[in-house]
Every structure is written in C-alpha cells, then in structure tokens.
C-alpha cells in the first residue's frame, strides 16, 4: 500500500516536472504582413543575472538634471540605471511596456574592451526572488569602437535567448510590451518601427513571477565571469512607458524609484532623470 501510493506520488511529481518546462511559440510580422518566423533563431545562453544589486558605496542622494517631476525617490545600484515601479501584490503587474532607443555606444576610456550596455523592459527584477521576465537589446563596443547589437529575451532563472534574425541598429526605437496571462505565462511583443517588424512570443510554463515590480532599465550586467565592462553611450530615452495592473488599472512612472549606477569608488556612471509620467532619459557619465 505504502510503496504503491508513494510511486504514484513520484510519478505525478515526475509528470509535473516534465510539463513545467518553459516553452514558447514565435510569430513575426514584417512590413505589417505575417511572415514565416523560422527566419528567427533563438540562441540560448546561460541565464544572466539581471537582478538589481545594491552598490558597495553609498552616495548622498541628490536630484540630477531637470527634477521637474513628482518622482524623486532616488536609489543606487551597482548594475541598474532607470526606473523601477513597485505595486502591491493585491493588484499586481499585468503588463509593462515602453519605447526606448537601442544603446548607441562608444568606448569608455580606462576600461578594457569589449564593453557592453543593455537596455530592457521587465517584470520583477527588484524584489521577486523566484523570477524575472524581460526583453531588450545589448550593444557591444569592440576595441576598434565598432558596435555589434542584438535583441534578446530572458525569463530568469531560465535561459537567456539572443534573437538572431531581428535586425537592430544603434539608436533605433524599440517597443517592448510584456503582458502576463498568469504568473507563469506571457505574451511578449518586440517591435522595431525602423526595421518594420513585430515579433510576438507566446510563452508558457515560465518560472513563477511575483508581479510586484515593473522596470525600465539600462544595465551594466553580470555574466558568468562577473560584471562586464560598461560602455559609454549617447543619451537614451524611454518614452510612452507604463504598466497596467492585472485588474486593468493604468500605472504611470510617477512614484517610481529613479535608479543610478554607482561604482565601487562612489562615482555615478549612469543617471536616470524623470521627464514626465511616461518618459525619462538615461545619461552615461565617465
Ligand atoms: C500589450 O499587449 C497586450 C496583449 O497583446 C495588449 O492587450 C495591450 O493592449 C498591449 N498594451 C499596449 C500599451 O499596447
Ligand atoms: C560618451 O558618449 C557621448 C555620446 O556619444 C559623447 O558625447 C561623449 O564624449 C562620450 N564620452 C567619452 C568620455 O568618450
Ligand atoms: C500618471 O499616469 C497614471 C496612469 O496613466 C495616472 O493614473 C496618474 O494619475 C498619472 N499621474 C499624474 C501626476 O498625472
């Protein structure tokens, strides 16, 4: 009796584990027409730690630049620059969206190339311990100053996927809309109006989200070898950005924390300045 009950339980467990594998289906529109999405390839890389890290140094909070917004919660991070909006789990984040300019990078003096800068939109990178769902663009600046740039998405702690076949040029506007359909499934849309495509992913069985934070971030990310060298970049805007709660409430950027990257020695490498309820600008400092 005992042993058969146990084996049934184990089989159920194995079945549950087997069905819980993340899966996704891609579709692609080019110039407004549905095309074969098999032109795209999703190249898995090990998951990257895009979570918010606290800095070692502590700076005196200050208001940079325009400062004409009700947002003036300033926070510091060793890897994040941008806006982070927290909501209560009672009516959590249903979707997060925004346009941003793909990073246009140049070599930062005094740091060995290759250098990197990522920009992304995501859910749950700040406070949720179980998952982070995000999509964006990474620009790599090589030793000769040339740039290579690619779009990617990741549902941490699952793999990160570089999306081969989606062209992005530095400075292109990218629209990302991530809509959760449950705590473990989502519709992710990536649109680049200059290159005239929209890619949509229908994702299932993702790691469990908390849906308590929406984020619009420029990042000096960590890979398996530690934090990558951070490239210099032109001012980068996030516009028409916002979120919607699961219950359908519109959420703007007012009240979001504006996050700055602070190096170990206390210098600010990147700052985020509010502009209005749906936009802000990120500046690189050297
Ligand atoms: C984001 O995508 C969802 C699902 O496709 C859609 O219902 C919603 O209107 C989109 N949000 C915006 C701001 O376009
Ligand atoms: C950083 O990039 C900006 C925009 O391209 C440029 O104006 C600035 O001179 C660069 N800074 C350094 C130190 O190269
Ligand atoms: C910011 O936008 C949100 C969502 O649209 C709205 O509910 C809120 O009232 C706006 N805040 C201000 C100060 O306009």
Automatic annotation (TrEMBL):
Transmembrane segments: none annotated. One of its GO terms (molecular function) is glutamic-type endopeptidase activity. Pfam families: Peptidase_A4 (PF01828). GO terms for biological process: proteolysis. It comes from the Eukaryota. Residues 1-20 form the signal peptide. Residues 47-69 are annotated as: Disordered. InterPro entries: ConA-like_dom_sf, Peptidase_G1, Peptidase_G1_sf. Keywords: Signal. CDD domains: Peptidase_G1. The active site is at 219 (proton acceptor). PANTHER family: ASPERGILLOPEPSIN, PUTAITVE (AFU_ORTHOLOGUE AFUA_7G01200), PUTATIVE (AFU_ORTHOLOGUE AFUA_3G02970)-RELATED. This is Uncharacterized protein.
């Amino acid at each position: 009796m005992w042993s058969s009950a146990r084996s049934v339980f184990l089989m159920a467990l194995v079945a549950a584990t087997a069905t819980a594998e993340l899966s996704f289906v891609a579709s692609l529109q080019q110039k407004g027409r549905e095309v074969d999405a098999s032109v795209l390839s999703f190249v898995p890389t090990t998951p990257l730690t895009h979570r918010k890290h606290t800095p070692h140094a502590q700076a005196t909070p200050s208001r940079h630049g325009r400062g004409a917004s009700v947002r003036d919660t300033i926070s510091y991070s060793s890897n994040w620059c941008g806006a982070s909006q927290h909501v209560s789990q009672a009516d959590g984040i249903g979707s997060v969206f925004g346009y941003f300019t793909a990073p246009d990078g140049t070599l930062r003096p005094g740091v060995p190339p290759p250098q990197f800068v990522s920009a992304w939109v995501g859910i749950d990178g700040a406070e949720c311990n179980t998952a982070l769902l995000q999509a964006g663009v990474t620009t790599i600046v090589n030793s000769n100053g040339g740039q290579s740039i690619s779009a990617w998405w990741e549902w941490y702690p699952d793999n990160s996927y570089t999306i081969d076949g989606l062209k992005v040029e530095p400075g292109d506007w990218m629209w990302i809309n991530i809509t959760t359909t449950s705590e473990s499934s989502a519709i992710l849309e990536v649109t680049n109006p200059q290159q005239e495509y929209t890619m949509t992913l229908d994702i299932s069985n993702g790691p469990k989200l908390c849906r308590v934070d929406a984020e619009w971030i420029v990042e000096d990310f960590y890979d398996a070898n530690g934090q990558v060298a951070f490239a210099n970049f032109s001012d980068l805007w996030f516009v028409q950005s916002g979120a919607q709660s699961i219950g359908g409430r519109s959420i703007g950027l007012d009240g979001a924390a504006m996050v700055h990257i602070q190096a170990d020695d206390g210098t600010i490498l990147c700052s985020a300045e509010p502009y209005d309820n749906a936009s802000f600008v990120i500046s690189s400092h050297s």
